[in-house]
Write a structure and sequence with these properties.
Radius of gyration: 21 Å
Bound molecules: 2'-deoxyinosine, zinc ion
Catalytic activity: adenosine + H2O + H(+) = inosine + NH4(+); 2'-deoxyadenosine + H2O + H(+) = 2'-deoxyinosine + NH4(+)
GO cellular component, one term: cytosol
Largest sheet: 8 strands, parallel
CATH topology: TIM Barrel
Pfam families: A_deaminase (PF00962)
Strand order of the largest sheet: 1-2-3-4-5-6-9-10
Protein name: Adenosine deaminase
Function: Catalyzes the hydrolytic deamination of adenosine and 2-deoxyadenosine.
């Protein structure tokens, strides 16, 4: 017998399901209308479009190039309008609001403070403006009937040379809104070992970090991120698939690195739509997430850049549900994985899982039992309409 809970969730259920987001860039998630207003207010005149809908489409198309360096060029426009305290506050507040509206209950949102200094702000002023914005967004979300908690991850750019400075900044703000550290930017030619001093510093401080690795570049990047740098999580990590062999009879063999990642329960921050745009995967159906989920890697689902990918957490799940037939149980599995892998303290993660995530899914999974039907005869399970 199949119960209704083995059916694919509806778009409305997907949106209402509690979701956890670990990999989302603040400068990759602005509302198009906000970019236009901020550009006008600050005199930035290089936007390719001045109509919000057209600008949204421009970002998606420009990011759809099949190349990570080209994808990253689009951030020049978003960073250009995020150079004042007011702009950073607004973008951060709207980010928290938009995520909450989409059913995200916990998010770690990252950005590179060094990219927001052009108008004279200090690194500290950047962090504080973003923190204040997140708190404001949490308040607005609460007033609108949503609950969300947002932590910041401070990113250092891998082509630059400020990683240690940003790691120290992350450590200074660790009890004040910042939950960890990351490096991002073009991967090929910029190995994470360039920034070993930053990672060693954070380890000495018992702090947490994730590294973008295994997206545009393969296994050596993942290996360095884990075995040289000691990353707690991998941003993307999708190319771990190169160390997994599937034989014609369906049997699967894991190489040493893939085994290590699975055995040590290293969280992989999967971003399916972003991977399609940078050609790290060919289609949703062929995305390695399908096989990695079957093999029980510690997988999480993420947005990466909601603006450039025209996406949201709900959209990412919709694509995966279409491609792989996932159910609410699968969504819960991804969500609990993400919460287990978050950088906030263990007791808080556990409370989120037990008091927010599991009850949220239990509620959704039991809805069919209470659905009203036109007819009062027959079995509820088979007669119910959506
Ligand atoms: O998917 C990505 N890979 C590498 N770097 C990225 C990705 N998405 C965004 N970034 C970069 C561009 C942003 O300006 C920076 C900080 O958020 O991080
Ligand atoms: Zn990213």
């Amino acid at each position: 017998m199949t119960s209704e809970t083995s059916n694919p969730p509806t778009p409305d259920q997907i949106r209402r399901a509690p979701k956890v987001l670990l990999h989302d860039h603040l400068d990759g998630g602005l509302r198009p209308g906000t970019i236009i207003e901020l550009a006008r207010a600050t005199g930035y005149d290089k936007l390719p479009e001045t109509d919000a809908d057209k600008l949204g489409t421009w970002f998606r198309d420009a990011a759809d190039s099949g190349s990570l360096p080209r994808y990253l060029e689009t951030f020049a426009h978003t960073c250009a309008v995020m150079q004042t305290k007011e702009a950073l506050f607004r973008v951060a507040a709207e980010c928290a609001e938009d995520l909450a509206e989409d059913g995200v209950v916990y998010a770690e949102v990252r950005y590179a403070p060094e990219q927001h200094l052009e108008a004279g702000l200090t690194l500290e002023e950047v962090v504080e403006a973003v923190n204040d914005g997140f708190r404001e967004g949490e308040r607005r979300a609460k007033a609108a009937g949503h609950r969300i908690r947002v932590g910041a991850l401070l990113t250092a750019m891998r082509h630059a040379a400020r990683a240690l400075e940003i790691a120290e900044l992350a450590n200074r703000y660790r009890d004040n809104g910042v939950v960890g550290f990351d490096i991002a930017g073009a991967e090929a030619g910029f190995p994470p070992t360039r920034h070993l001093d930053a990672f060693e510093y954070l380890k000495r401080e018992n702090n947490h970090f994730t590294i973008h690795a295994g997206e545009a570049f393969g296994l050596p990047s993942i290996w360095q991120a884990l075995q040289w740098c000691g990353a707690d999580r991998l941003g993307h990590g999708v190319r771990i698939i190169d160390d997994i062999e599937v034989a014609e009879d369906g049997s699967v063999t894991l190489g040493r690195l893939a085994s290590y990642v699975r055995d040590k329960r290293i969280p992989l921050e999967m971003c399916p739509t972003s991977n399609l745009q940078t050609a790290a995967a060919a289609s949703y159906a062929e995305h390695p997430i399908g096989l990695l989920r079957k093999l029980h890697f510690r997988l999480t689902v993420n947005t990466d850049n909601r603006l450039m990918s025209g996406t949201s957490m709900s959209r990412e799940f919709e694509h995966l549900i279409d491609a792989f037939g996932y159910t609410l149980d699968d969504m819960q599995w991804f969500t609990v994985n993400a919460m287990k892998s978050a950088f906030i303290p263990f007791d808080e993660r556990l409370a989120m899982i037990n008091d927010v995530i599991k009850p949220g899914y239990a509620e959704l999974k039991s809805e069919w039992l209470f659905r009203q039907t036109a007819s009062t005869s027959g079995s509820v399970g088979t007669q119910a309409t959506a």
